[in-house]
């Protein structure tokens, strides 16, 4: 990307959905070698309607969060974009009233970042990320341009080609984790029976001095449901109750983390979404953690955050959800949490199950 318009139309792909009323901050890694082009190391989106403490207060909060990520990435430069339908192109309006509040925010944001030794290298604004929309600089009022079609962005093309959908709004993501109360009631009606059957299988395996047989069968049950769902068949309420009981076992849950880096990641995510929508309590949290981890390890921060929020809303004491949420909020790189998937691969291998090739 060589000019602001190209960067702006790439935002839906980089964020995972089309941002609205947002401040998007792009963290630039130090070029290697020094004179080469900068590389994007992280992208953060902030809701412009989330804070009512005034522009100075909001700027300080945002700058603190960005500075923390920059420290984790060893970065000293960022770019910023305001996307807000309440703004109008200043070159086409009699006054700059609709632009001034956000220009003030960005100026305060830049000052706060400078205190943390981070430079705001460029800042732009646009009413919406759509073909034909005018963008303009918040640093230089004479620097402006027109957006091309975001669908034609090479970044968007590469994103979709790699199997990552671009959602039309953040709501599409939050809808993925909304509980279906009717489905949850149906599943709950089968939980006692599923729990009893699972307990009996585990006790039988212990009596045979072969607990691995229980874990192996449980893991195979989940893998079978993933394959079934991928073929178009939705699990029944009874089957989802059985899966809920299976996911309560830490050995099985930890092995399933490995699917996030394998060829069956997308199919597994389908099952996690189905379970998040259909389970309650800690069972729902377990499925949400699997979805959150899968999104996190592939770099989909927005979905990871939404899934982990769902897990913690359901079970605030869930240790894995707390661990991943803390890592995400502190800017831990996805590659650094991959070791959880590698550990899962080891568990599956010890059980005699090959989860297939993985990707880096």
UniProtKB/TrEMBL annotation:
Q: Which InterPro entries match?
A: DUF4192
Q: Name one Pfam family in it.
A: DUF4192
Indicate what this protein is called per its UniProt record.
Answer: DUF4192 domain-containing protein
Please tell me the species this chain comes from.
Answer: Nocardia xishanensis
